Amino acid sequence: MASKEKDTGSGSAAPGGGKKDAVGSPGPTGIPPVRQMKVVGIKNRLSEGYYFNSDKMPVNVKIRADQDLVPIYELTIPGLAEGTRLILNTLRGELITKVKVDITDVIDPKKVDEVKKKFEDAALELLNRQFPSTSDETKYVLVSYVLQHTLGLGEIEPLMHDDYLEEVVVNGANEPIWVYHKKYGWCKTNIQLKSEAAIYDIASSIGRKIGKQISVLNPLMDAHLPTGERVNATLFPVSNHGNTITIRKFSSNPWTIPTLMELNCISGELSAFIWLCIQYELSFLISGGTGSGKTSFLNAIATMIPPNQRVVSIEDTRELALPSFLHWVPMVTREANVESRGEVTMLNLLVNALRQRPDRILVGEVRKQREAEILFEAMHTGHSVYATIHADNSAETITRLTTPPINMPVEVVDSLAGIIVQYRQRRLGIRRTLEFAEMEKGGSLRLLYKWDPRADSIAKVNDSINILSRLASYTGMFQKEMLDDIAEKKKVLEWSVKNRYNDIERVGKVMAAYYKQKDELMDAVTKDKKWI
Questions:
Q1: I need a surface site. Which of 4, 285, 372, 419 has the fewest CB within 10 A?
Q2: Mind listing the pLDDT tens digit for each residue in 386-427?
Q3: Per the CATH hierarchy, to which homologous superfamily does domain 257-526 belong?
């Protein structure tokens, strides 16, 4: 479907072109069986291979260490002959007529699966009626093809189901699609869209679902998919090499602190210290560059919030995913429609959130002065706030906060407990917690932890003064009690890593048990036994 192949003379060919053979010819049912595509002509060393399903279509991926400057992401899916494609495109037309859905259902994340199920059932019914002799395996592959070209992103869709990918990038019809792989970084794929019109069609269909339009007069578009992925699209000649699409994928398995510890992104000691701060409602900013993992880290530490507290999150695009049992109200901004009406800004949501009696407020990103004013006002009125901001280190974070365009007074910034800095090492393809600094009076910082790149470990630089002082005044705990508490939390986190309690629900339950069933949990930790 999406791969570019060379004809080797064996009868296999890329779908939509090349010669046909008996396998690809229509059989008694009028529809050819599914055949496995071959990708040939890439003579290089195989680095890794794995499988996943795109809907119910099997997908095989091989990462190859080519002699080229970047790895090759080689995707193989069941191939379809041109006659099969024509039949399925006819079925798509019937399907759209037959299945009645409201446009609001298509864009509602809660109803995406329901809409897909309606189309799947209707497509199976049509295939069973017209091609009763086709095997179930073939039917499900054909149904997946129809769904991907009706509700999904067509030839890009299989890439959206690979959990190892963070970005999917189309730079034009004259070059292959690029992807950012969590392990291998930027990779060139063996998928290439056939024309600029095909790229435009995908971008346009994304825009239509959320009431946006991309055209020669409006050649730039920021949007999001119902499943949360952020999309940016541009049209030629604004993008000189052709139409482009950039998709930032939404992780179906959110990062958690045990996962980050296992990947050496953060130490157990620092994680436990942050947990203590969150337990007693100290506020933090999480800073870092683009793609450094700020939102992922915000999501990870949010599981440390006690389960009996109300959490309100505010984002431009829904990315956070908290445990299902938390008292959580997620809110997202909305852009104005074509008549310049109906806009809901981050500021609108921040003001509204303060009227919902939140215990904790999570903010996707702070960009403007008025947003920062409301954010720090929330801290001063007793709300615990966690937000992200673009800055490369803790000192630069303070500079961004206290200079235009945010321009907050230094005295206001003092209400922060500390700053956590995330870092992406592009050469090695790793992410690390770079710094943890506590706030001191007058906007100065005291660096407590810092990542050592030579040892690839997080080292303690200084003992905390201000944070421990705040905790002592809020809790009445002595310093030794706080250090013992940190050591206890570290044991819980290391036990979670050892027992593979790293998905969002189970980590959330461990955190909740620490607050509600501490003796029972600590007994399991001390005896090193399974608990969940």
A1: 4
A2: 999 999 999 999 999 999 999 999 999 999 999 999 999 887
A3: P-loop containing nucleotide triphosphate hydrolases (3.40.50.300)
Q: At which residue do the structure tokens 């199920």 appear? A: 117
Q: What is the rounded CA–CA span in Å between residue 311 and residue 383?
A: 10
> What is d(CA 252, CA 461) in angstroms, rounded to the nearest whole number?
36
Look at residues 139, 15, 23 and name the one whose alpha carbon lies nearest to residue 86: 15
Question: What is the distance between the alpha carbons of residues 230 and 272, in angstroms, rounded to a whole number?
Answer: 32
- Architecture of the domain whose range is 35-248: 2-Layer Sandwich (3.30)
DSSP string, 116-164: HHHHHHHHHHHHHHH-TTS-HHHHHHHHHHHHHHHTS-GGGHHHHT-TT
What is the DSSP secondary structure assignment for residue 334, as one 8-state letter?
B
φ, ψ dihedrals at 353, nearest 5°: -60, -35
pLDDT digits over 459-505, tens only?
999 999 999 999 999 999 999 999 999 999 999 999 999 999 999 99
Phi/psi class of residue 288: alpha, beta or left (left: φ > 0; alpha: ψ in -120 to 50)? left
- DSSP secondary structure code for residue 366 in this structure: -
Closest CA to 233 of 213, 251, 209, 253: 213
59 is written with which tokens?
Answer: 């997908």
Q: Structural domain boundaries of the chain?
A: 35-248, 257-526
Q: Whole-model pTM above 0.70?
A: yes
CB distance 254 to 493 below 8 Å: no
Is the CB of residue 314 less than 8 Å from the CB of residue 364? yes
CA atoms in the 13 A half-sphere facing the CB of 395: 2
For the chain, give percent helix, strand, coil, nearest 5: 35, 25, 40
The letter for the amino acid at 223 is A
